[in-house]
Amino acid sequence: IHILALVFVQSNFVEPPTPDTSLRSLSETQTRLPCRYQPEKGERVVQVTWAKELPEGNKEQIITAHFTDGHTEFGRYSGRVKFESSSPTENSALLIPSTEVSDEGTYTCHISTFPNGNFEMSIILTVWSLPISSLDPVILEEGQSFRVAATCRAVGRPLPRLSWDTDLPGQSQNRTSEGGGSVSSHYSLHPLRGMNGKKLDCLVWHPGLDGPRRISNLLVVQFPPDATISASPGDWYVGMEKAELVCESGGYPKPQNVTWTWRGGALPDGVSAVGGKLFFGRALRTNDSGVYGCVVRNNVGVGKTEYLLTLTETSPRTGDSSEDNLLLIIIGASAGALVMVLIIIVLLVNRYHRHRNKKLEMELSEKTEEINSLSRQASFRRLNSVSTDPRVQVKKKTKTKNE
């Protein structure tokens, strides 16, 4: 009869709208279990009770509210749950402010009415917990055998899935704990120095996450140093100033211990070492030649190298200076000769123009004199033709007599 009554009035539950309701929540967050009964005309809700079904089939009371006597919390739920509304008989939704995984189960909202009796609706609650993950890297050394380079672990509900994001050649192996509450993944490889500093990230997958959670990690592979010595550029000679040798070393971790030797022993006087640099604090001497050694160490191994220093008696720059001076002399002489040629050309051009102008003046003067001479001669001829010709005078006299 009770079940029939429940089914008959199930539609009076306006929240949730369906009789079979499943909810999902995350641990450490607030969970709301809806329950609102709409009484019929002349019907009144007098009491609301929430209960949780136990594995053996019994029900454990959580909280109850009477329309006149107030509400009561029971047992381990005291202080952990509360009604959403100050009027629980009208809005009977239950709140769990900080949900725990143990809160997962089936909850029943029991409504007591007058005069129609009791009615129930159930909600199945699933509680997820977001994964808690960690990554444990392993410091490797070059030359070791195939072994684990990093381990990634995660716990969550449901169980997370782990994968690796890397370009390193290796293999991963996943394991689940006996209780099924945690998962781990081991990534193994054969360590080489070229792998040092390469990406080896762990990805944690879970349905409660929008995407994979990345745990960033860089592989660490330690290897011994390789030492090399470089010298100041150019030939080294007796009397050279500010000379230095530099010991460069690879390796990881970077070597901090650098030792210099000369001919297998102590350094010459006036020569000092500061880390990877060897300074000659004075001009080079003939006896500074010989084998200089550099030894570098890190926690993995040792690197050694030698450099044979040979000195010349004179600076190679002296010959260069003579050649440079000779070149400057040649350039200067060529420039001087070019200037002299230009001066001579200018003088010759000037002399040519003066000679030409003088010749033109003489020709002009001769022409002027010639013109003047011809003019005078013409004048004399006209004069003589008028006043000195006897034939003219005789004709004039004869004409007079005849008259």
Automatic annotation (TrEMBL):
InterPro entries noted in UniProt: CD80_C2-set (IPR013162), Ig-like_dom (IPR007110), Ig-like_dom_sf (IPR036179), Ig-like_fold (IPR013783), Ig_sub (IPR003599), Ig_sub2 (IPR003598), Ig_V-set (IPR013106), Nectin/Nectin-like (IPR051427)
Sorted UniProt keywords: Cell adhesion, Disulfide bond, Glycoprotein, Membrane, Repeat, Signal, Transmembrane, Transmembrane helix
Classification via PROSITE patterns: IG_LIKE
Biased composition (Polar residues): 169-184, 381-390
A Pfam family of this chain: Ig_3
GO cellular component: adherens junction; membrane
Region described as Disordered: spans on this chain: 163-184, 381-403
SMART domains xref list: IG, IGc2
Family from the record: Belongs to the nectin family.
UniProt protein name: Nectin cell adhesion molecule 4b
Classification lineage: Eukaryota, Metazoa, Chordata, Craniata, Vertebrata
